[in-house]
Design brief:
2 domains; binds pyridoxal-5'-phosphate; alpha/beta; Aspartate Aminotransferase, domain 2; 13 helices; about 15% strand; 18 strands; three-stranded antiparallel sheet; Aspartate Aminotransferase, domain 1
Length: about 400
C-alpha cells in the first residue's frame, strides 16, 4: 500500500452504516501450539484442578520470562491485583494512586481491598500515567511525617502506586520509582496488557515490588481465564500463595488463620498457559509486525495519528490504537467505528476514564482532562496475533478512505 491517499467514493455501507457479520475481529486468541496435547495430559491423568505439574511449570515459565524470582498463578488478573494489593500492605481506608485511563479492574481491586483509588491523568505522548502529576500531588497536596504520607485533603494515608502499562506500552518507570523510594510507597504494576514489553531493557512485571498479569481471552497469551502475580520478594510470594488458597495453614486438619480466597488457577488452564508461553516471543513479534504495517499504511493520513513506542520502551502493541481528529463534518472515532463495522471489521474505543465512572464516583483525581481527550478520539484497530498483513491493509484502506470522505465533505 502506498502512502498516496486514494480518495474513493464512499460505499453504500459507509453512507448507511449498519453492522455486517464480523470478518476481521478486534483481538482473538491464537491457539496453534501444544494446547491440545497438554490439556489431554490433564484429562488422561485426572490432574484437572488447582494442583498439578502444569501450574508449577506455568509459574516457572512466567517467572523466568519476566525475570522475577517468584510467580503465583491466580484465577484471573483482577484476583491477582486484589491479592497483590493485600500482600503489599494496603489496608482499608488507604489511598492508592492508579491510572485513570485504563480498564476498570485495577480500580475495582483497590476497592476490594477497602482502599480508595486516586486517579492519575494520562500523559499526552504516551497515554500512560503522568508521573509528573504524582510528583506535584505528593509535594504540594500531601504531608510526609514520621514516615507516613497523608493526603491533606482527605486525611487518608497514601500507601502505594499502581501504574498500568496500557495497550502494550510501559509507563515511564524511572521517575516513578524515584518518587516511590522517596515516600516509601509500594509499586504494584498492572502489567496485564503488556506481557513481553520492556522498559530500558527490563521486562514489564519486573519494574516495581509486585506485578500482575492476565490471561483473559483477549490478552497476548490466554488460558481462557487466568492471572499471575510475580515478585522478587519471597515473603510477598508466600503471602500471595497463602491468600489465594483460602489461607490454609494445615491441609489435613483444615486450619485457616485468616479469611482467604479461592483464587488458584486450575491445572487445565495452566496447561494451556504453558503451550501459550512457548510461543510468546513469536506472538510479540507478530503484534509488532502488525503495528509496523499499520504505521506504514496510515503514515501521513490527515487526522489520524497512532500511539507510538516510547523511546524508553520495547512495546508489544497489544492493541494498535489511533487518534481520530474529529472534523467539522462531525465524523469522529465512533463514526469510524461504525464505518468499519459496516464492513464487518471490529474496532473499539478505549475505556471511559475511571474518574468519570459511576462505579468510582467521588474519587480523588489528579487532572483527568488529557485522559478524556484521548478517550474521545481513540479507536483500537484489529490486532489479533493471527491477523494477516492483507487484513491490516484492508482495515487501513477503510481508515484512509474515511479520512478522504471527511476531507471532501468539508
Ligand atoms: C485485562 C485487564 C485486567 C484483568 O483482567 P482479568 O480479566 O481479570 O484477567 C486488569 N487490568 C487491565 C488494565 C486489563 O486490561
Amino acid at each position: 500500500m502506498s502512502n498516496v491517499i486514494d480518495c474513493l467514493p464512499a460505499s453504500p455501507e459507509q453512507l448507511n452504516p449498519a453492522s455486517a457479520p464480523t470478518t476481521i475481529a478486534l483481538c482473538v486468541p491464537e491457539i496453534r501450539g501444544n494446547e491440545w496435547r497438554y490439556v489431554k495430559e490433564c484429562l488422561d491423568t485426572g490432574w484437572v484442578s488447582s494442583a498439578g505439574s502444569f501450574v508449577t511449570r506455568f509459574e516457572e515459565m512466567v517467572a523466568a520470562y519476566v525475570g522475577t524470582r517468584f510467580a503465583v498463578a491466580t484465577v484471573n488478573g483482577t484476583a491477582a491485583l486484589h491479592v497483590a494489593l493485600l500482600a503489599a500492605g494496603v489496608e482499608p481506608e488507604d489511598e492508592v494512586l492508579v491510572s485513570t485511563l485504563t480498564f476498570i479492574a485495577p480500580a475495582n481491586a483497590i476497592r476490594y481491598a477497602g482502599a480508595h483509588p486516586v486517579f492519575v491523568d494520562a500523559d499526552l505522548q504516551t497515554w500512560q500515567m503522568d508521573v509528573s502529576r504524582i510528583a506535584d500531588f505528593l509535594e504540594l497536596q500531601c504531608r510526609y511525617k514520621d514516615r507516613r504520607l497523608t493526603n491533606s485533603s482527605t486525611g487518608r494515608r497514601v500507601r502505594a502506586i499502581m501504574p498500568v502499562h496500557i495497550l502494550g506500552h510501559p509507563v515511564d518507570m524511572d521517575p516513578l520509582r524515584a518518587i516511590a523510594e522517596k515516600y516509601e510507597l509500594r509499586i504494584i504494576e498492572d502489567a496485564t496488557e503488556s506481557l513481553g514489553a520492556a522498559y530500558k531493557g527490563r521486562r514489564a512485571g519486573h519494574l516495581g515490588n509486585i506485578a500482575c498479569f492476565s490471561f483473559n481471552g483477549n490478552k497476548i497469551i490466554t488460558t481462557g481465564g487466568g492471572g499471575m502475580v510475580v515478585t522478587d520478594d519471597e515473603i510477598i510470594a508466600n503471602r500471595i500463595r497463602h491468600l489465594t488458597t483460602q489461607a490454609k495453614k494445615d491441609p489435613i486438619e483444615y486450619i485457616h488463620d485468616e479469611v482467604g480466597f479461592n483464587y488458584r488457577l486450575t491445572n487445565i488452564q495452566a496447561a494451556v498457559g504453558c503451550a501459550q508461553m512457548e510461543l510468546l516471543d513469536e506472538y510479540v513479534a507478530a503484534k509488532r509486525r502488525i503495528a509496523a504495517a499499520y504505521d506504514r499504511n496510515l503514515d501521513g493520513v490527515p487526522g489520524i495519528s497512532a500511539l507510538r513506542e516510547p523511546n524508553y520502551a520495547f512495546s508489544t502493541f497489544w492493541m494498535y490504537t489511533v487518534l481520530v481528529e474529529p472534523a467539522a463534518a462531525g465524523r469522529d472515532s465512533r463514526e469510524l467505528m461504525r464505518t468499519l463495522a459496516a464492513s464487518g471489521i471490529q474496532s473499539r474505543p478505549l475505556w471511559q476514564p475511571l474518574h468519570r465512572s459511576k462505579a468510582h464516583s467521588g474519587s480523588y483525581v489528579l487532572g483527568g482532562e488529557i485522559a478524556e481527550k484521548i478517550n474521545a478520539k481513540a479507536l483500537s484497530l484489529p490486532s489479533s496475533v493471527g491477523l494477516s498483513l492483507d487484513s491490516v491493509d484492508t482495515v487501513s484502506e477503510l481508515v484512509r478512505n474515511f479520512q478522504c470522505d471527511l476531507n471532501s465533505s468539508q
